[in-house]
Design goal:
The chain is an alpha/beta fold. Helix content is 41%, strand content 16%. The chain has 2 domains: 129 residues, Aspartate Aminotransferase, domain 1; 226 residues, Type I PLP-dependent aspartate aminotransferase-like (Major domain) (Aspartate Aminotransferase, domain 2). Strand 1 and strand 2 form a beta hairpin.
């Protein structure tokens, strides 16, 4: 008889000593979970983009206007970045060949770290290979105990809508994780107050990746000061987009570095490259160099990518017209949506989700938009809460006003259809 791979027949305790062990096959279990997802219209599909030209991509042989890219400033294909990468590759080759501490740290990395520190108004910055790893590394170094030592009593308080990498980071380091009501400073305060004898980190996205709204950073900073908690901000979607010279959501909110001492941001979104960094005081960065396992035990980013990111920082910082254009497109999109009766969420950033609700309806809307030449993926659970599936529209300085106008018309039709089928 074939057992369902998800349900073991009995608990391990029931097994007699010496009896043959029959464990569920793990790959079969994956297949069963996948089938479950498919039934709930939650299956993900890995698709290959055949070519890219600015805001246009080719998928399955069809040209689509891409409204899903995080290339907010239009830098991913910028000739200055390509040239910087090529030049550095000629000079250094491709691989860094080792971890940062073992000879992998090259001049291109050091120069980029200095540039990032200056840009974000911090003493120092430290590179990581991805944002996911930067969050794991920083949180584990700050909240994790020493191996073999008595575990640290650590509390990690997080916004309910934080990015998955922050949630995973807290779980990995063994801190007690609690999640407060989205963007609710009072709720965060109540959770910090539950354990006043534990060290505490409050972590929040600067800009929420699936909703596009901005965290109440000034309020959270004041709360952390009062409750002796450390504030960590993940500014993956704020860097380059918000604040003075694109320095990010903390700059936009007027929160000084000492009140948000741990800043993480990525190089793969507005900066158009890949990789990430943590910026802060010399004491923080020195500590991460020693203790952040996701930095110590991994190969340094290829130096040519660091060189490309350096070129990107200069453009992001000093070509303010890109942010100005983005702001015009955002205003145009929101105004046009209001005119057409399309409900938007309260976002002033390039992330402009259109809430649909049911996963199946969101998927249908995505397919309808694709049929009309637009790539706007449906974001479904577990990435967002049950019943909160949405079309995540992302604007970029690569778009033109007429692109946005055409999208609005197609959206109005797709959303209208989703509504009538409810
Ligand atoms: C994208 C993202 C990350 C992960 O960054 P990667 O460099 O893509 O690994 C972390 N946090 C937030 C809020 C993000 O949106």
């Amino acid at each position: 008889m074939k057992r369902h791979p998800l349900t073991p027949t009995r608990s391990p305790a029931e097994k007699a000593v010496g009896e043959a062990v029959v464990r569920p096959d793990l790959i079969e279990r994956l297949a069963a979970r996948q089938a479950q997802r498919a039934r709930a219209a939650l299956l993900r599909r890995l698709r290959t983009v055949e070519s890219v030209d600015g805001a246009r991509i080719v998928l399955d042989g069809k040209v689509l206007l891409n409204f899903a890219s995080n290339d907010y400033l239009g830098l991913a294909q910028h000739p200055a970045l390509v040239e910087a990468l090529q030049r550095a590759a000629t000079q250094w080759g491709i691989g860094s060949t080792a971890a940062h501490l073992l000879g992998g740290h090259r001049e291109a990395h050091a120069a980029l770290e200095e540039k990032l520190a200056r840009w974000t108004g911090r003493e120092r910055a430290l590179l990581f290979s991805t944002g996911y790893m930067a969050n794991l590394g920083a949180m584990q170094a700050l909240l994790g105990g020493d191996p073999g030592a008595h575990p640290l009593q650590a509390l990690c308080v997080q916004d309910k809508l934080n990015h998955a990498s922050l949630i995973d980071a807290a779980r990995l380091c063994g801190a007690q994780l609690t999640r407060y009501v989205h963007a609710d400073v009072a709720s965060a305060g109540r959770q910090l107050a539950t354990q006043t004898d534990a060290v505490a980190l409050l972590a929040t996205d600067g800009v929420f990746s699936m909703d596009g709204d901005v965290a109440p950073l000034a309020g959270l900073a004041a709360l952390c000061k009062k409750q002796h908690a450390t504030l960590m901000v993940d500014d993956a979607h704020g860097i380059g987009v918000l604040g003075e010279e694109g320095a990010g959501s903390l700059s936009e909110a007027g929160v000084a570095a000492q009140h948000a001492p741990v800043l993480m941001a990525t190089l793969g979104k507005a900066l158009g490259v890949g990789g990430a960094f943590v910026a802060g005081s010399a004491a923080l960065i020195d500590g991460l160099v020693q203790f952040a396992r996701a930095h110590v035990y991994t190969t340094a980013l290829p130096p040519a990518l660091a060189a490309a990111a350096s070129a990107a920082v200069d453009i992001a910082r000093f070509e303010g017209w890109r942010r100005a254009k983005l702001a015009r497109l955002i205003a145009h999109f929101r105004h046009g949506a209001a005119e057409r009766g399309i409900d938007l969420m309260a976002s002033s950033t390039p992330i402009q989700p259109v809430l649909i609700g049911a996963s199946k309806a969101a998927l249908d809307a995505t397919l309808a938009l694709e049929g009309e030449g637009f790539f706007v993926p449906a974001i479904r659970p577990p990435t967002v809460a049950q019943g909160k599936a949405r079309l995540r529209v992302v604007l970029s300085a690569r778009h033109e006003e007429q692109d946005v106008e055409r999208l609005l018309n197609a959206l109005a039709r797709a959303v209208g259809r989703a509504r009538s089928e409810r």
